[in-house]
Design goal:
3 helices; mainly alpha; single chain
Amino acid sequence: MKQFRIFSAITCFAAVMYFLIFSFSNISAAEQTSFKKCVNSCAGKRQVCFNINADKRACEVEFKSCVAACKPENDSSSSSNKQGTNSVTPPR
């Protein structure tokens, strides 16, 4: 009976550790996936900008601000960049 109690305690501890380790690692993987999708979207917008706008520098500025907006909320470097994001309109 005493061995069963010890085995149960070890099993519960192992289950809790497994849950903690793998539940939080999936959150990180999801954030990385969404960040990659956002950056790919920015790259697509940059390509469209290159097709429309003759000024490549304006497209690069827009791309950098788009990538800055993609960064996770807890990143301190992106909080200042999100406030100053401006949209670049092509000349007509």
